[in-house]
Amino acid sequence: MAKTRISISLERGQAERIKQHAERAGMDVSAYLVHAATRQMAESDAIEEQFAEVDALIARAEQAASGLPAEPDPELAAELTEQERREVEEAMDLIHGRDRHDRRPGHAA
Question: Where does the pLDDT of residue 80 fall: very low under 50, low under 70, confident under 90, or very high at 90 and above?
Fold first, then answer.
């Protein structure tokens, strides 16, 4: 199989640590880096595969939520009890991904 050369730039300290780890593993630096990268790629692929269904579900929910109004219809809201209005507000916050301070969870304020 034909091989391709890839050049990388490292800080001197990083390069030394990689060399030391490769030696301890009984490998040359190239083999060590290929092994490490291949292992990381396999782990990432497995994680993506495991969560693909959840990611697709989230994407569909976000797409569906994007078509919803940001606020409930005032005429319909007038017919609700105070408890029902709070429940609708909480549900809308969940749909739009906002907390009580109008911040999206996981996003910087």
Answer: confident
